[in-house]
Amino acid sequence: MARWRIPLALLSCLCLALAYEDDIEVNYADNYYNEISQGETPEPTPSTTPCRAPDLTKWDKIFSMLENSQMRETMLLQYADDIIKVEMSSVKGEILRFLAEYEGSCGLAVEAAGRRAAAQVEARLRETLSSAGGGSSAVEEMLRELLSTVQSQASRLAKLESSCFSSPGAEEGAALQPAQLGGDGLEGLLAALQETRVELEEARRSSRRRYLPAGCEMALLFPMRSRRIFTSVFPDAPLSLSSFTVCMWVKPNAVSNKTVLLSYGNRRNPYEIQLLLSKASAFLTIGGEAHLVEAAGVVKTSEWMHLCGAWSTQQGLASLWAGGRKVASTPGVAEGHTIPDGGSLQLGQERNGCCPPGSGSRVSGFEGGFDAKLSFAGQMTGVNMWDRVLSQNQIGQLARREGEGCQQRGNLVAWGVTEMVPHGGAQFTN
Asked: Which residues pair with 260 in a beta bridge?
């Protein structure tokens, strides 16, 4: 009986499996709903054409170039300033280390040098005495002068020695032997000091190129030569003048055969007053180029320089000043002439076309307007004008680079007060 029970159980399990076979469906394939099946092609996406930027005008390109140039100049100046700070701190550290090492032994070195000098002088005296024989009056006079010189040098060495020993750290240096810093050591010390002086001078010149002179806080930048780039000036009083002085600081990038710094004129004569540069010379003209004064060899590019021009109708005395010194003076320049009012004053150009188009009042020969070859490129600051001739002391005060010349303003044109309107890319910078 037990023999038949097992097959019946197996049979029942088999029947149960067959009964569920139709209800369970197993799918072992991967199901990706985002998959692109074979034979199907994706729908083409519409292509979008990017918006085309409008064409830049010539002025847009020029101003973009100016902005990029200004950014590069600012970065270079900042980099140069950082280098100067590092170099100055390095030089300061070298000087401090040098002082810590040699300040105590300078007295001993001076004493040793004095002893050697005294021995040499004494030997020379003996030679002179032995060669004198009878001892003439001329030899005695020479010996007295030599003895006086030796005594003077000994006194100076004693003062120097006492000042060295009175400095801090002299007691520590007293233990040093004179042989440690003899004549060779003094020569090395002198060479090191001279080298340090050269480095400090280079750092000072670099710093002076970075900052504006005479306490000025801003400057006019003329970025390039162009007939459109200039600055109009509107004086505070009428320019009906029998004398004047005009001064300015200029830093030209380049100088042509005729570079205009300042120009004043009217319809009848566009060249009443002109301050010009030509290569290495400066010119001041009154009433036209036939009446001028020239100062040769005063112009340097890429460096700040102070220029003044003065004129008086009495005797027609015209003068040019560079760096606070009178470098040229000529009498008989437009003697008895009076500068008329009603003209236009500009910086960086000359107005050689007096009137607007279509007015019918143009002066014959001056129809060209501004000329790019005459324009100024560089920087300008401290522009002032007076209705009198300034004294030498006053001009010297204005020309002091480390002074406050920009605080002394003219009564006709005052830097930082009188209205000045830049045109065509000229701009104020600080």
From this structure: 276
Give the CA-trace dihedral at 233, 235, 236, 240, to 10 degrees: -170
Tens of pLDDT, residues 133-165: 544 555 566 666 666 666 666 666 666 666 655
Closest CA to 88 of 204, 189, 195, 210: 204
Structure tokens at 328: 């040229």
DSSP 334-357: STT--BPSS-EEEESS-----S-T
Identify the H or E element spanning 179. Answer: none
Measured between alpha carbons, how far is 94 from 173 in angstroms, rounded to an integer?
19
Residues 6+ apart with CB under 8 A from 263: 270, 271, 273, 274, 275, 345, 346, 349, 350, 351
pTM: 0.53
Amino acid 351: pLDDT:
80
Task: Give the containing element (helix H, strand E) for 403.
Answer: none
Q: Tens of pLDDT along 25-70?
A: 555 555 555 555 555 555 555 555 556 656 677 777 787 788 788 7
Q: Residue 20 corresponds to which tokens in the numbers above?
A: 């569920």
Contacts of 335-340 with CB under 8 Å at 24 or more apart are 337/286, 337/287, 337/291, 337/313, 338/240, 338/241, 338/242, 338/313, 339/239, 339/240, 339/241, 339/242, 339/244, 339/264, 339/272, 339/273, 339/286, 339/287, 340/239, 340/240, 340/266, 340/268, 340/269, 340/272
Residue 396 in tokens: 């010297």
Taken in order 251, 254, 258, 263, the sign of the CA dihedral is negative
